[in-house]
């Protein structure tokens, strides 16, 4: 085994250790079933890297390099997924909270009953919020960054003004439902645009690959570069128009 291959093997081991360490950090904060799927994906990708390394050391190096960045993208995905799930679960939780308060329970007692002995991530997050609400002198930076500031404000008000707690929580729940319904409708409208852009992107890549195979890249490099530039400009303009739409609630 030469020195270059030994370095590649060490690089591969270091990349896997980095991914594994990040995965362990995720393990205590996210759904176990989802993390099992992510772990299986990482193992399969490592096997894929090894199979590539049999044919090309350069491709092996590039594919292994992706392992260093994969935890970052997985973290972004998990945070985005949890934020979406948190909004959905929060509506159901507020319905249950209002039901408890409607039958005579106070805000704190209703929260205590609903969160008692629950260990899922959503309940743990709400317990952190309640700890901050009850002991308001705590540093708010300790709260997860994805928690809506309005939620904390409403909980603090409900805790300090029990006689107005029910109406404030109910109004907040109704606002969340309106926003959620709006997001669902806007998503249904824009999903077709995203699919069209995805299909067009796939066709462009396929036609570009076919043209390069058929006519060669070096002889027509200016045409290919101009085509790619115009395509990227078109995608950018479409994205800007899409982001600039004004929706009416």
Topology:
Elements: H1 3-27, H2 32-53, H3 57-102, H4 107-115, H5 121-134, H6 149-160, H7 162-215, H8 221-243
Helix pairs in contact: 1-2, 1-3, 2-3, 3-4, 3-7, 5-6, 6-7, 7-8
- Report the structural category: mainly alpha
Our estimate of the beta-strand percent is: under 5%
Taking the alpha carbons of the first and last residues, their distance comes to 66 Å
Largest sheet: none
Number of strands: 0
Task: Give the % helix.
Answer: over 70%
Total helical segments = 8
- The helix/strand series, from N terminus to C terminus, equals HHHHHHHH
CA radius of gyration is 26 Å
Q: Outline, from the CA principal axes?
A: flat
User: Taking all residues together, what is the mean pLDDT?
Assistant: 76
Q: Which stretches of 5+ consecutive residues score pLDDT under 50?
A: none
Question: Could you explain how this protein is built, in words?
Answer:
The protein is an all-alpha fold and 249 residues long. 82% of the residues lie in helices and 0% in strands. The chain has helices at 3-27, 32-53, 57-102, 107-115, 121-134, 149-160, 162-215, 221-243. The radius of gyration is 26 Å and the shape is flat. The N and C termini lie far apart (66 Å). The relative contact order is 0.06.
Fill in the keyword field for this structure.
249 residues; mainly alpha; 82% helix
């Amino acid at each position: 085994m030469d020195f270059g291959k030994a370095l590649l093997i060490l690089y591969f081991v270091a990349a896997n250790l980095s991914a594994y360490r990040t995965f362990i950090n995720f393990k205590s904060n996210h759904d176990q079933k989802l993390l099992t799927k992510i772990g299986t994906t990482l193992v399969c990708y490592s096997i894929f890297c090894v199979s590539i390394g049999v044919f090309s050391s350069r491709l092996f190096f590039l594919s292994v390099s992706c392992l260093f960045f994969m935890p970052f993208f997985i973290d972004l995905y998990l945070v985005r997924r949890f934020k979406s799930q948190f909004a959905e679960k929060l509506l159901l939780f507020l319905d249950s909270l209002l039901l408890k308060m409607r039958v005579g329970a106070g805000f704190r007692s209703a929260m205590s009953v609903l969160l008692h002995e629950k260990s899922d991530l959503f309940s743990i997050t709400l317990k952190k919020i309640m700890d901050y609400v009850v002991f308001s002198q705590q540093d708010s930076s300790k709260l997860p960054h994805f928690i809506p500031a309005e939620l904390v404000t409403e909980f603090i008000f409900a805790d300090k003004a029990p006689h107005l707690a029910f109406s404030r929580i109910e109004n907040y729940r109704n606002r969340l439902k309106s926003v959620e319904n709006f997001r669902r409708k806007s998503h249904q409208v824009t999903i077709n645009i995203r699919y069209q852009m995805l299909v067009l992107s796939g066709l462009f890549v396929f036609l570009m690959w076919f043209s390069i195979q058929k006519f060669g890249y070096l002889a027509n490099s200016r045409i290919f570069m101009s085509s790619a530039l115009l395509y990227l400009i078109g995608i950018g303009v479409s994205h800007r128009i899409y982001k600039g739409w004004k929706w009416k609630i």
